[in-house]
Give the backbone structure.
Amino acid sequence: MSEQAIVIIITAVFGALNLVDWYTTRTVLKAGGTEDNKFTAFVLRFINLDVYLAGKAALAFYVGYHIGFISMPFLVFLTTLYGFYMVRNWKQL
């Protein structure tokens, strides 16, 4: 398997985790929960939740893809870390 194919697969997983983040964040906030991330909570005072999450997901795809070619181990690290974070989010549902 080529390096490009591996980067694309890992980037897709990273992007999918962002979609999970979108779902869990929307669900928790609509149920009356609060955003734990201080930066996100601040940004959400000014823009719509879906606009923020869509932009964040698009940025994750773009940055993840380019990071993968600079340092694939770093992309794997970010994806793994984000995966653990999404498991924590899912448990809050």
